[in-house]
Amino acid sequence: YRPYSYVRIGKFKEAIDDVNVLMNMTSSHYTSYVAKCEVLSRYGRHKEAIDDCETALKKRPKDTILMRYNADALIRAGKIDEGLRLYDKVINETASPHFALFAKAEALDEAGMGTDALLAYKTALLYDEDSDEAERKEKIGKAITHGVTGYLTVAKKGKFTEGMIKFAKQRIAELEKLK
After folding, report:
1. What pLDDT digit, counting tens, does each position of 6-26 carry?
2. In this model, does residue 57 exceed pLDDT 80?
3. Residue 85's pLDDT band (cuts 50, 70, 90)
């Protein structure tokens, strides 16, 4: 989507204009609400972002993508506990908890919650496509003994892109230096 590109370069007015065009064309489609929620939230218009996500969630109450963007908006709005509870729900209900954990780590990182972000990034990396179920359970068990327990659900297979893995490892190293 073009609105996300505008957000990345700081052109929020253009991003919102594009989202409004998208909403006029496809307002019944949930991806329009996802885009609008994300753009408004990044622009600092948190209440509108949260309202739009919640409107879409009324139509699609089990949509974990919408829940995730709503959680991001809540965290950016300073409603940290509410946003984290929603992220935990997403992690427990999605078929891809590793991606939800990664998104949660980014949200915590953005909110300046380095220790929690560090644990979430590490936990997200525990999901390794090449690991069998026994190996994942062993990794999860080790993570639990090291304080990651709040971020874990049943391990499921998944695959991160190399860029995601590199980014997470880089942020882990940076966050560990701040300890």
Report:
1. 777 888 788 888 877 877 776
2. yes
3. very high
Write the DSSP assignment of 111-179 as a string of letters: TT-HHHHHHHHHHHHT--TTS-HHHHHHHHHHHHHTT-GGG----------HHHHHHHHHHHHHHHHH-
Question: How many CA atoms lie within 13 Å of 163's alpha carbon, on the beta-carbon side?
Answer: 0
Report CA-CA distances (Å) from 115 to 13, 44, 73, 160.
34, 24, 20, 22
Cα angle, residue 65 at apex, residues 63 and 70 outer, rounded to 5°: 95
In angstroms, the CA 26 to CA 178 distance is 45
CB–CB of 19/35 below 8 Å? yes
What integer pLDDT is reported at residue 172 of this predicted model? 79
Q: Is the pLDDT of residue 142 over 80?
A: no
CA distances from 82 to 12, 35, 127 (A): 26, 21, 25
Q: How many CB atoms lie within 10 A of CB 177?
A: 7
Q: Which amino acid is at 2?
A: R
